[in-house]
Design brief:
This protein is mainly alpha-helical. The chain has four helices and two strands, in the order αααββα. The longest helix has 35 residues.
Length: 124
């Protein structure tokens, strides 16, 4: 688990840093804003990109963890999420998330509900 949180932190930080640099240059060169305003705008965008990257990384890790923990096949994942089995290719016993990232919250929510139902059945 420590390896995954380190990945999330590095991935999100790099994304935020790239966004900060890009927005700062756009604000300074294109819009001709002064330095403090450009840094403020770049900082806000960097925080937004950090949050998006953190969520995407977390969603990816959680989806793969649930699929691995419950030994879900592509057909199982399709049945749980209501999508096609071809959306969940599994190579070398690892789930490959080829779905567009906009579908990841739906997939994660469906899998978390599945996990919760499984845990409730075991608890009874």
């Amino acid at each position: 688990m420590r390896k995954q949180s380190m990945f999330l932190a590095v991935y999100s930080t790099i994304s935020a840093l790239i966004a900060f640099i890009a927005i700062a240059f756009i604000c300074l060169r294109t819009f001709r804003w002064n330095l403090p305003v450009a840094i403020l705008a770049a900082s806000i965008f960097a925080l937004i990109f950090f949050a998006f990257s953190w969520f995407r990384g977390h969603a990816s890790v959680e989806i793969k963890r649930i699929a691995r923990e419950y030994h879900l096949s592509d057909k199982d994942l399709a049945k749980i999420t209501g999508m096609k089995a071809s959306d969940f290719p599994i190579y070398n016993d690892k789930l490959q998330l080829i779905l567009p990232k906009r579908y990841w919250p739906k997939v994660l929510d469906s899998l978390q509900k599945y996990e919760q139902e499984k845990n409730e059945k075991v608890g009874k």
